[in-house]
């Protein structure tokens, strides 16, 4: 299960927009991705100074992500993802045979890759779609996660390592005085990226989650130069080490909020060998774009859906909204039995996703993907004196510049914008204009149905 069959399927459905004008990796490609954010799958076939590479972006919008998971609807996708996370399946591993063995570069120069520089003020070119896999020194634990990588020289990168699982493996290697071997895979099936951003306990390999998601069809290969495994179908594999004792400045870079993150001393990564397919696809994820927010937020939506489903009769859907950075704001449509259900939904959502800052609960008649409808529900169904939940000094996300940057403390707010059960519903229902099939057909033709 690799990227190319998925790309072919998107092509067949007419979703690929090929951009054949010559464009620079510095700002120019990023500007096009931003302008068409969330729309067609973009394929940049003429990248200045990087002949032979095709840069692809916007691989995933919501519709394509559901298709990549083989799900009919968003609820089906949540179920599949949670099921895979709970029942990981160890993939088959070969000692060789990676598709990327078509070109093996023993003396790599990372500057030959079409790595994008995205925003004014960014520290430099950043690899943003890299799935990074590593094993513990005893080989018992594998971790796979996505990290941003600043390309800082011919063989040198700097990785942002938050103190989670990869950080822990790096510490384990350091305690033995060793560098940590990693496989950096670029250009993989969307399900592999999504599995890598899905929260599972330390000790569970996200590759095994990806394999469960893909129905047992993920294959891995062992790397030649480092002790790590990579997806056999990856377009580009960088075999590298995270140095035990070498740090360098990382950042500034625009992260999920669309604001610049701080500069920090972070571990240096040294490339040992690069493998790539002939005419490889390089996947670029625009920071703060739809794809970034979706791939990071979708597994959290699934967690919220599961948690809220336990406390209310039915959850129709969850949206970590784009305006809320796909991370800080949720809108949740529920069916309730008693008015208190909405407040319990608010508390369950906060418990399920600790970074969540604001949550709005609406009735099932509100389209949670339409911010105008959500605001309308707040305008017509919400009374702050009754329907507001306010939690000061809770743990939030330091990605939010308005949160306390030292402690991560934030104030959380939940809004119950559902219709009170004891009131006459007719006073709250949206007015409808009745039309016959003729006008319906006309509206469809006008693209307004
Ligand atoms: Mn992990």
Which keywords apply here?
449 residues; alpha+beta; Pnp Oxidase, Chain A; UbiD C-terminal domain-like; nine-stranded antiparallel β-sheet; five-stranded mixed β-sheet; 12 helices; globular; binds manganese (II) ion
Describe the protein's architecture and organization:
The chain is 27% helix and 26% strand. The protein is α+β, with helices and mostly antiparallel strands and 449 residues long. It has 2 domains: 276 residues, Roll (Pnp Oxidase, Chain A); 137 residues, UbiD C-terminal domain-like (3-Layer(aba) Sandwich). Strands 5, 6, 7, 8, 9, 10, 11, 14 and 15 form a 9-stranded antiparallel sheet that branches. It has a 5-stranded mixed sheet with strand order 17-18-19-21-20, sandwiched between helices. Helix 9 links the parallel strand 18 and strand 19. It is globular and about 75 Å long. The two termini are 37 Å apart. The mean pLDDT is 96. The structure holds manganese (II) ion. The site of manganese (II) ion has 6 residues, from strand 8.
User: Mind telling me the CATH class of the largest domain?
Assistant: Mainly Beta
Estimate the global geometry from the Cα principal axes: globular
- The fraction of residues assigned to DSSP E strands is 25-35%
Mean pLDDT across all amino acids: 96
What is the end-to-end distance? 37 Å
- Architecture (CATH level 2) name of the largest domain: Roll
Hetero groups bound?
manganese (II) ion
What is the strand tally? 21
Any idea what the radius of gyration is? 23 Å
